[in-house]
Amino acid sequence: MELISVDELKRRKDAGEELYILDVREPHEYAETNMGALLIPLGQVMSGQIEAIEDWKDKEVIVHCRSGARSATACTVLEQMGFKHTKNLTGGILAWNALPGV
Q1: What is the pTM of this model?
Q2: Residue 69, C-beta contacts closer than 8 angstroms, at least 6 positions apart
Q3: Which residues contact 23 (CB under 8 A, 6 or more apart)?
Q4: Which residues are designated catalytic?
Q5: pLDDT-based confidence at 2, cuts 50/70/90?
């Protein structure tokens, strides 16, 4: 697992780069605020319910949660499932929402 900053993620999104972003928060958190990532809560990731992202195994997968702890766990679990390049978003959605212009 590597880390990615919200500044780098915003720059890459603004550049129109194709990104594979996974949100591992709960549905009620996603409903409050989100960046348009695919939602699969951490519990589902941990139980192997990842059919929606099976084809992401060879991609760079950017994982985020509220602050970075759950997404770090998700990155570790995904790597154990064969995902080759996971990145944890430092500071999570809280840091993302603190960016100017977001």
Answers
A1: 0.97
A2: none
A3: 30, 34, 35, 37, 38, 39, 40, 64, 65, 93
A4: 65
A5: very high
